[in-house]
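Re: weekly structure request thread

Next one in the queue (216 aa):
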Amino acid sequence: MLRTHPNNDITYEGDSRYQKLTDWLPSSWEGRQQKLDYIISVERAHLLDELYSGRLWAIGFVTESDGFDRPTRVPRDLFFVNPNDYPERQPQIDWEKGELIGCGVSYFDIHVLRPIGQVEADSVKNDDQSLNTEEQRASPIKSTRGRPSTGNEIRNMVIKMWKDPEFKKISNRTTQAREVRAKLCGEETRNIDNLVGYNTSTIVRIIGEVAGQRSE
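Done, posted below.
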């Protein structure tokens, strides 16, 4: 009914369902549009929360370097919403096209699915408990954005790469940080120093912390 102009309400006057909505339904077209926009925003926020929690999965496609499209699950942390954060740090979603851009990667033709049975619980558990014993001992990095930080993901990659003598030979921390980001987010993000969640200064700090721990 919110998509119906008030001038057309006369068509539904005899409908009992319409009669129950008269107190809820705005009498002006503008009011109906505002209410419709609000309801859509609430429903989208709920959907994002379900995707972020892992209760729903988003399956889309990414285009590989060879030009072929590969189906993949969109990382659930890309659906986190902090209403107090900057707009550019909110999920970059084109709702009409079913597309999302996150961590320098474009996902398209996204469909939302509900995991079957234990797959849902196992997925959330694996996401949260995939660290090995050494990595679990590392102190978590708190996010200033109020979301589970990408710091743990960065730290885990740094710990892994620190075992490579060639990585440790790189004397410039910024260059090391770019190597880490390229591993995590793809080669195309190597020189994007201000990439949200994976900015160079944060990675440099984490590399320094890991290097300090390994030298103790």
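The mean pLDDT is 77. Strands lie at 57-63, 69-73, 92-94, 99-102, 105-113.
Next request, please.
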